[in-house]
Amino acid sequence: MTFNDFNFHKELLKGIKIAGFKEPSPIQKMVIPIISNGEDLVGQAHTGTGKTAAFGLPIINKIANGEIERALVITPTRELATQVSDELYHLGRFAGIRTITVYGGVGYGRQIALINKGVQIVVATPGRLKDLYKKGKIDDFNPEIVVLDEADEMLDMGFLEEIKEIFEYIPQNRQTLLFSATIPEPIKALADTILSNPQFISVVGQDESTTNNVIEQIYYVINESQRDEAIVKLLETEKIKKCIVFCRMKREVDRLTEYLKALGFNASGLHGDLEQSERDEVIKAYRRNQTQIMVATDVAARGLDVKQVTHVFNYHIPFDPQSYVHRIGRTGRAGKRGKAITLVSTEEFRELQRIQKEVGANMKLATIQMNDKDVTNESNFLSLEQRVRDIKIDDLAIDFIDSMEDMDYHEFVERVVTILLKENQSKVAQIGYDLDTVNSMIDEYQDEQKVAQKSNRNRKRR
Ligand code: AMP
After folding, report:
1. What pLDDT, in 10s, does the model give residues 73-96?
2. Of 27, 34, 362, 439, which has the highest C-beta tally within 10 A?
3. By residue range, what is the domain housing residue 300?
4. Does the Cβ of 52 fall within 6 Å of ligand 1?
5. Cβ–ligand 1 contact at 446 (below 6 Å)
6. Which atom of ligand 1 is nearest the CA belonging to 87?
């Protein structure tokens, strides 16, 4: 099947071609005919499956053909709104489609003016959109198609009431589409109230990829005290183009970012306490490959679609299984392979097992084999020293040093030695325990749990 089979407007086909989409992804094959047919839909799919284009293409096509005039997409975060708006703009620009993002934290004037001027696709976050409707600023904005994107995220972020209120302002004779990675009870109930006779489509657990993207999932079992060392070793040994390191807490993001920067890594932090303009800067630099490592909390990196993210690291395993799914979905995008690496301490076994069970994550235990060299060992240090002594000094090096008149010679040598030591060290460390050790740790952990439960019961009885 190709995109030509959908009978799309020729200017839209041009947009698809320039975007580099060769063939429709599984979700696109399934939902495009339904949406084109004017039916309501609940689509269960993670980000990375091509779901934006799955709803975007038939919407753009209908606008291009004059079947409808306007559409609204509601997303949980400003970042996602920008991303969706950009993608729809790029796909639809030859068909003359204009898009606008509407979110809080910036002035109202331009947003109101553009909506009232008739921009065809409005991509909005719930808070600001509700505000505009409530203040009577966009009374004439009556979209014929409304999309709720990442509905479960909106639920998690506490937007459910706002969504319901927004729908009170939108005419009933609309087509409504709801996309969500998971469909918990409140989302089902919401779908019952705002959708009419919807079709249900799910690509979760099947081949979800846009083309054939695969995320390899591995985990290392470490001691709590090894966490920083482990992440540094992984950053040094993995072949990383760009990566995201997920932390649980904002202050952990700040601390780890500073730590990595001090070691010379090109890292920056992203979390909700940063000013919106700072967040924009961090994401922009990351998109443009000016930053290689983004250290982030779940919320800050939610729904982020950045190309060429080869690795996702879970510095800590997330509390919630769904977060695990959302986190690892930041890699392996648009048909590329990705790797998701999780660091787990023995205290986190239970969370690991819950994630494996609830989301069926196929995570494999990994270790980096111990090299027989150990730099902390004195004989190795001596051999390193000998190696340094044996190096024949190149003429180029002499010229180079001569040209560095301003640098303190002593300091320079210290830096070179530091680099040599670091290089040597990165080759020798072991990360994680092997399978036998992990199994015996699990046994020990489970025994401890049993003892703890038993003593709890005894205490209660007393
Ligand atoms: P999404 O799930 O909408 O966040 O899309 C994930 C990524 O896949 C985006 O970068 C899209 O541009 C890309 N994409 C969407 N559809 C296709 C397709 N049919 N072929 C290749 N890439 C696609």
Report:
1. 999 988 889 889 999 999 999 999
2. 27
3. 211-369+432-458
4. yes
5. no
6. 12
